[in-house]
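Re: [ENG-882] Designed sequences occasionally contain unexpected residues at chain ends

Forwarding the minimal case from QA. Structure tokens:
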């Protein structure tokens, strides 16, 4: 199979979907890899390293899309990439379709085969290709929140961990999954008073067993959230419904209950956000303020630490990418249920329920496109 590795062009996205080591694995399996010049530069990988691994370097993104049968990326295609995508071309990347309708319609129109990292799901309901970036984003959230709590950045002027004789900050984490667990762990490590909420009592019991003494578990419901935000200094949104839009747990009306300078970090923003007032921002302009509340809503947080993120992501994605290349996407999806669940849009048809529901589009049975 001919594999294409384009350079990510989303604002301040420095990750890359394949390392030189990953390219070498494709070459070893008899495939051809074309890499756009400087694609790996942001993550610390030179064109020379890719060439030594066996890739052919192409100067433009147009050439990469034009020759590849499978495009391997990190983030969803953006507007200027839509017309480069060929009918039947396989795109293996994060899509988060349910949060952005124009992307969905563009991929339907291009009749691409869209296999989304974020909906590849194992039998135990875990999401193996989302986990590594969730771990990075979860660990980054308190780090970014701590920074924006500083007064020059319009925060409350509170040190997350406090000092002897002065209380630490109060951190509220909404969601006890991978992101929430990592966020609570790092916040607790800073020395903050942490409250983590989830709708699963089973999960809260598990968290209660593994978290340090400065983390309190609380059942997530509207009343408890409304009470907790009144004293929270940093609120981290970490809610995920695989392949679907995140629910709004904090509404605009609720901002009035927060103290001026409270910081919101919505890690779920690439799935529509669990805080109503959060809209995607970039690393270039990461925050905005509504009702004196600081909103940090960067949709590709791990892009700020590309070396760590690229290695963590490719550790997870490479085995699946090789499977798709070795067997072809249809056979691979027939043999592996988790890959079948990764299919979102195929040949102009929506085959993932969460995407169809988000925009009221007709749903095609995935078995039909695999026949």
């Amino acid at each position: 199979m001919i594999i294409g590795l384009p350079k990510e062009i989303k604002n301040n996205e420095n990750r890359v979907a394949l390392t030189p080591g990953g390219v070498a694995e494709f070459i070893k399996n008899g495939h051809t890899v074309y890499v756009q010049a400087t694609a790996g530069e942001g993550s610390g990988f030179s064109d020379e390293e890719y060439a030594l691994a066996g890739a052919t370097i192409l100067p433009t993104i147009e050439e990469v899309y034009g020759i590849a049968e499978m495009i391997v990326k990190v983030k969803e295609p953006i507007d200027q990439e839509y017309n480069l995508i060929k009918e039947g071309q396989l795109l293996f990347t994060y899509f988060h379709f349910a949060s952005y309708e124009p992307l969905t319609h563009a991929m339907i129109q291009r009749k691409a085969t869209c296999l989304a990292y974020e909906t590849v799901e194992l039998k135990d309901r875990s999401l193996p290709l989302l986990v590594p970036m969730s771990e990075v984003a979860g660990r980054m959230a308190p780090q970014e929140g701590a920074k924006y709590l500083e007064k020059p950045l319009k925060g409350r002027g509170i040190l997350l961990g406090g000092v002897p004789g002065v209380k630490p900050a109060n951190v509220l984490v909404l969601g006890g999954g991978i992101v929430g667990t990592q966020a609570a762990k790092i916040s607790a490590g800073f020395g903050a008073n942490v409250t983590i909420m989830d709708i699963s009592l089973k999960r809260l019991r598990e968290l209660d067993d593994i978290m340090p003494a400065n983390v309190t578990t609380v059942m997530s419901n509207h009343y408890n959230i409304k009470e907790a935000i009144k004293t929270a200094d940093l609120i981290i949104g970490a809610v995920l419904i695989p392949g679907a839009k995140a629910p709004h747990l904090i509404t605009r009306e609720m901002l009035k209950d927060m103290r001026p300078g409270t910081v919101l970090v919505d890690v779920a923003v690439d799935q529509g956000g669990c805080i109503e007032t959060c809209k995607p921002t970039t690393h270039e302009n990461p925050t905005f303020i509504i009702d004196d509340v600081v909103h940090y809503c960067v949709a590709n947080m791990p892009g700020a630490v590309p070396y760590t993120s690229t290695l963590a992501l490719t550790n997870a994605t490479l085995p699946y990418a090789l499977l798709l290349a070795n067997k072809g996407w249809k056979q691979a999806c027939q043999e592996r249920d988790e890959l079948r669940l990764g299919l979102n849009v195929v040949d102009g048809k929506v085959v993932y329920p969460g995407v169809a529901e988000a925009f009221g589009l007709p749903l095609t049975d995935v078995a039909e496109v695999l026949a």
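QA comment: On inspection the terminal residues look reasonable. The chain has a mean pLDDT of 96. Proposing we downgrade this to a documentation issue.
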